[in-house]
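note to self: the first set is below, dont mix up w the second
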Amino acid sequence: MLKRGMDVTVYERTEAFARFGGPIQFASNALSVIKAIDSDLFNQIMARFTFTGTRSCGIKDGLRAKGFKMTEDSLDYVVNADAPPDWFVKFPLKQCADVFGLPYTGVIDRPDLQEILIAECKKIKPDFIQNGRGVVGYESRGPG
């Protein structure tokens, strides 16, 4: 919103941001939107990104598995109790991204993403975030 010229202030209850939290996943379509909106932001995210959409993704039979072992695609486990646990379903993330020319799905650590986004906003409005000042109320002024 800052990049579109809106005057935005974020009120944050915590005094300062700390590096904690797990990874945030961006699917191919979300990455393509970020790239279309701001290619510099996209490149910063990509510099700290781990691709997961290039790997085998799906749902495996975790109940029968003895540890995690990648197996070949086979439906033998449906009729053969001695067959190794295999995929119930696979998600062709890489193939779909390739067909539509999209970036591959992946993750970025939450603190890394937060750092990038805060730095980008501070370039436009250095005091856009007010740490230690949580919201205590609001007033609705109708549509708009």
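second set (the one i keep forgetting abt)
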Amino acid sequence: EESSGGGEGLDGDGKTPATPRMVPKCPARILIVEDHWANRKLIEAMLLQKGHILDCVENGKEAVTNTNTIEYDLVLMDCNMPIMDGWQATETIRQRRGLNVSVPIVAVTANAMKGDRDKCIQAGMDDYISKPVDRKTLYEIIDKWTMVPAGGESPQPSSPTR
């Protein structure tokens, strides 16, 4: 069990509000950005088995367009693609003001060298998984980056009655 802070006020005195238990969001709205159809279909099939809501595009330019109009819980971003690569697309998404500016972006790449991970993080990506994509690793990454408080979505403010 992970602790949720520095430990102050956590002695069970009843004065500290309980930290909500966090669970992976399911279904999560996920954008798959992958130029190779077989890789895209494989990732899509694994995520559909978990019940996630998916959009798929073939290059970074399409990813930038989609993330400008649709709110995502996570983006799975290939790095080496034609038209606009994943690093450029991530930088563009991060630099503009608006929708998805802070969405978790996970690099999905065949480049498994140490320098490549650093390049992904510098571009603004949050995490990294290598190809071929392993089902267990993919599910762990999705769970890690889509955590929400148990009991549903983020709390909605109650509307005042008139």
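remember for set 2: The helical segments are 37-49, 60-69, 86-95, 114-123, 135-145.
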